[in-house]
Design goal:
The chain is α/β, with parallel strands linked by helices. The chain is about 30% helix and about 20% strand. α1 (about 20-25) crosses α4 and α3 (about 70-80) packs parallel to α4. The protein binds S-adenosylmethionine. S-adenosylmethionine binds near residues 64, 65, 89 and 213.
Length: about 230
């Protein structure tokens, strides 16, 4: 359960003193597929039927913290028969994400300006399939682990929202965050399929099938080892 005292307060786009091209695109150009903090929760339990006009059986994946959306667009294009919802807080990357994903005309993705700590307000139990969390802010300087997205409360919420036979993938450059989150995973029902402190050390299927995100490319270039875990709701 999300701790009500830890619910983040975020500004409402509509009430910002100054709008810009990105805040306006959210409610105009992309209004059917980009949802601000007020409109996004109206889709709870209805993502497939109301947003994508699809059957309940079609897979619906989630990416938390899309950044500029390179992986998000890659996923949307690689899997035209799945739907994908992204969460992002910053306006520019949020619009870049949906623009990139829909550039080739396929409308199988949607983005929300939404804080991951409020995830329980966006999805019903059993509404999601696979979940991707790539390089979330590590909160090591300043050291504030309570702000980390991959914590036992959010993981447990995600677990309940996922359908059986779905996985969660988490990658980070921060060894400190990763080791901390491994203890968090142990407090959940997830079954770990594979975890490593160095994704690129061995020639595994996880390395071969890995899509390098924007942040990952930067870290790999700097010689930083990539921590990776794939865990299942069986
Ligand atoms: C370090 S970037 C990684 C972006 C991308 N996943 C990648 O690997 O290149 C983290 C992103 O998560 C977003 N973010 C941070 N905290 C978030 C939260 N609580 N909910 C949703 N998005 C968040 C940030 O705005 C930022 O774009």
């Amino acid at each position: 359960m999300i701790d009500e005292k830890r619910r983040p307060k975020i500004n409402i786009t509509r009430t910002l003193p100054k709008q810009n091209a990105y805040t306006l695109a959210l409610d105009n150009e992309f209004k059917d597929f980009a949802f601000n903090e007020e409109r996004a929760p109206l889709n709870k339990g209805k993502w497939r039927s109301e947003v994508f006009h699809a059957a309940e059986s079609v897979p619906l994946d989630l990416e938390i913290g899309t950044g500029s959306g390179m992986h998000f667009a890659h996923h949307a294009n690689k899997y035209p028969d799945r739907f994908l919802v992204g969460l992002e807080l910053k306006y520019k990357p949020l619009i870049q994400t949906i623009r990139r994903a829909q550039a080739q005309g396929k409308k199988n993705s949607a983005i929300c300006r939404y804080h991951a700590f409020n995830i329980d307000l966006l999805f019903e139990k059993n509404e999601l399939n696979n979940v991707y969390i790539h390089f979330p802010d590590p909160w090591v300087t300043p050291r504030k682990p309570k702000n980390r997205v991959v914590n036992r409360a959010i993981l447990s919420e995600l677990y309940e929202m996922q359908r059986s036979g779905s996985f969660l993938e988490f990658k980070t450059d921060s060894r400190e965050y990763f080791l901390w989150s491994m203890d968090e995973f142990k407090e959940t029902k997830y079954q770990v399929e594979y975890q490593t402190l160095n994704l690129y050390a061995e020639d595994t299927i996880y390395k071969r099938e890995n899509y390098q995100t924007t942040f990952e490319k930067i870290f790999v270039k700097q010689g930083i080892e990539i921590n990776f875990i794939k865990a299942w709701k069986k």
